[in-house]
UniProtKB/TrEMBL annotation:
Molecular functions per Gene Ontology: peptidoglycan lytic transglycosylase activity
Source organism phylogeny: Bacteria, Pseudomonadati, Pseudomonadota, Alphaproteobacteria, Hyphomicrobiales
Protein known as: Lytic murein transglycosylase
InterPro entries the UniProt entry points to: Lysozyme-like_dom_sf (IPR023346), MltB-like (IPR043426), SLT_2 (IPR031304)
BP-aspect Gene Ontology terms: peptidoglycan catabolic process
Gene3D superfamilies: 1.10.530.10, Bacterial muramidase
Origin: domain of life: Bacteria
Keyword Signal: yes
Domain Transglycosylase SLT: 37-232
Originating species: Bradyrhizobium uaiense
Segments crossing the lipid bilayer: none
Length: 265
């Protein structure tokens, strides 16, 4: 009996391995230039349909174009290699803090409501808002779906952006986004520049509306460990939530510093 079970198990393992290899062979292949993008779209759309993605979203995917500007931006993120002082000067931290203090006063009721619900004070939210979109003035003018599809096809980080692409397609199927939605170079949308997976997980309403975007950002921070009343400077409990928002060390420290200055600490 044991011998027969071992043979059956081995045969099953061979079948599973063969099926896995077949699926991998049929999966859409990444590329490093525009040449294979159209064929990749066809393959990816087929995989998406098999996973239950609807016609509205797959049709939108088939209308995307290879976003050369997105690839150029993805290869040229040099500001994250600057020193903290250089980074803050380049990003206009003094202007963000000055305007942020004004907005904290003029929008006090909104920020009080957000803090009561999520436990996040105005400073870091305002710093993120200013850093990400210049307080809503620079939300990007790229086709969101083309940017994300291009990065999912590109061989540099296909796994990360494939997840983002499936999230974008789900949002399009729901009617929350469309194939014509505009965003920044990597597909970020709204006043605090959410990626599609984060829209699905933490978004509250139309993120082009400041109150919704800021509430969504607070929701993200709380979900990533933010504790009401705790500090958010490096080494303090809430700094980890800022780290979850953006992986670049200079960005994280800049947000903490500007947030403290806006909050008057």
């Amino acid at each position: 009996m044991i011998r027969g079970w071992q043979i059956a198990t081995s045969a099953l393992a061979i079948v599973v391995m063969a099926a896995t290899l077949t699926a991998e062979a049929n999966a859409a292949q990444c590329g490093n230039g525009p040449g294979g993008f159209e064929a990749w779209k066809e393959q990816f759309a087929g995989e998406a349909r098999a996973k239950g993605v609807g016609a509205t979203a797959t049709d939108a995917l088939m209308q995307t174009h290879y976003a050369s500007a997105t690839i150029a931006a993805d290869r040229g993120q040099r500001s994250f290699g600057l020193s903290l002082e250089q980074f803050m000067a380049k990003r206009g931290s003094a202007t963000i803090v000055a305007r942020g203090r004004s907005l904290k006063q003029s929008q006090a009721a909104m920020f009080a409501s957000i803090q009561q619900r999520y436990g996040v004070p105005p400073g870091p939210l305002i710093a993120i808002w200013g850093m990400e979109s210049g307080f809503g003035s620079q939300r990007g003018n790229q086709n969101m779906l083309s940017s994300i599809a291009t990065l999912a096809y590109d061989c540099r980080r296909p796994e990360f952006f494939t997840e983002q692409l499936y999230a974008a397609l789900k949002l399009i199927d729901r009617g929350s986004l469309s194939g014509s939605t505009r965003g920044s170079m990597h597909g970020e949308i709204g006043q605090t520049q959410f990626m599609p997976k984060n829209v699905l997980a933490y978004g509250t309403g139309n993120l082009d509306v400041a109150a919704n975007a800021l509430a969504s950002t607070a929701n993200f921070l709380r979900a990533n460990g933010w504790r009401a009343g705790a500090g958010y400077q490096p080494g303090e409990p809430n700094f980890a939530a800022i780290e979850a928002w953006n992986a670049a060390g200079v960005y994280q420290k800049a947000i903490a510093i500007m947030g403290r200055q806006i909050d008057g600490q």
